[in-house]
Structures are given as C-alpha cells and as structure tokens.
Give the backbone structure.
Amino acid sequence: MAETKPTAATKSASSGQPKKSGNSISWIAPLTCIILGYVIWRFVLGASSNFTVPDTTGGFWPNHKGPKTGLSKMYEGGIIVPVLIGSFLTVLTFCIERFLTVAKAAGTGSIAEFVRTVQFHLANKDVDKALAACDKQKGSVGNVMKAGLKKYKEMITNTELDTEQKVMNIQKEVEEATALELPMLEKNLVFLSTIASVATLLGLLGTVLGMIKSFSALGDEGGGDAARELSKGISEALFNTALGIGTSAIAIIMYNIFTTRIDGITYGIDESGFTLTQSFAANYK
C-alpha cells in the first residue's frame, strides 16, 4: 500500500505562538500619572503663594482660601481634580506610546506601494527582490509579507505537496505571522476607550460633590454672603466638569485616530496574504 503524502509541511522556525511579553506600562503609567496629578494639584495649583489666605498647617488637603489666579481656583474643585489631572496625563502617556508603536508598525513607506512592488516581483518570479522590498519596508505588513515569502520560496522547491496544499501552507504561515503582529497594534487602546467614558463621569462626580458642599453652606449660613459663596462654589465645581469633558474628548479623538491607522495596517496585512496565495496559485500550478 502506497505511503500517504503529508498534507502540510513542517512548521518553519519563524512560526510559533506569540511570545509572552510584559506590559508593565499598563499599570505603572496610570498609577504614576495619578500620583503626579496629586503632586500638581497639591504643590503647584495648591501652593500657598497662590492664595490670599493659605492654610499654613499643610497636610494632605490644605483648606486654602482666596485663590489669586484662574488655575489656583482649580485647586478648590476638590479631591476629584487630581484624579482627573492624572487621567489626562494617562491619556497623554498612552497617546505617545501608541503613536510611536503604530508609526513603527506602519513601516517606512506607503503600504499600498509596497504591496504593488511585491506583486510586481512575484509576477516576474523574483522572490529574492520581493524579500529585499520587505527588509526595506519593515513594519507589521513587511514582517508578515516576509514570513509568507519565506514559506512561498520554500514551497517552490517542495515536490511532495500539490499546489493547493502549498497555498494552504503559505496562508497558514501568514496567519501565524499576523497573530504575532496584531496584539502589538491593539495593546493599550483599552485605556483610551475606558478613560473616554470614565473621565466624564468623574468630572460629574466632582461637580455633584462641589454642589452638595455649596448648597449645604447656603442652608447653614443664609443671606447675601451665602449666595456669593454658592456662586463661587458652583464655579469651582464646574472645573471638574471641564476637566472631565476635555480629557474624554481628547481620549475619544485619539482612540479613533489610532483605530483608523490600525485598520489601514490590518488591511495591508490581509492584502499581503491574498497577494501571496493568489500569486503562487497562478505562477506555480
């Protein structure tokens, strides 16, 4: 009885499960930003020199009175303010981190032009030039295309498998390379989407707490002085809303920008896999 041919080639050395890498920035950055937010609120906005009646006893939350500047008025918005400042700093941190990562993943040139270059070389059956184009392009699309091209080159000289099996092996290699690249692209975007929702709620929470405090003072004191204190308290409370809405808006805008760029890279990866399988099927029947 004839020996059955294998249906798939041995997995290449470049393939494998995605490496588990630490993502310490996911917990270090938010914690550091919250602490920095408190430092800014307590020692910059809440500096004694910013108030006409400073609380010289200090402590965690000094009861300063009479802010001299608009920024120092933000200090009187309450303990939610440093959390909101920390949230804003967290958004900036992850925006910078995602910008650098996505820029690196996009490669050195136009993805569409790169794919056309590879298609041209494959149409001429020049796999080595296509590999050289991958080395020049770099990025996620270049990495996936290079992994697929190595398998492509290997399948050209393979005499054990038929064309359909070879195409399946190339497709599998592309899928495995894609599985290594996509987690890097999508990592940490959850922080932007979460802060986009939570920052507004935190701002409203700070506003509500400030309003409760202001109306409580109105009920205790009464008279014209209480009305002035109420107006001042409402103004201070609204700083929370402004910070929350501003942070949320920036997070939403940047999240949409990054997801749009990632979608473009993902489309280039998908086009790479289609290019390799279709080219092999057409050129090596």
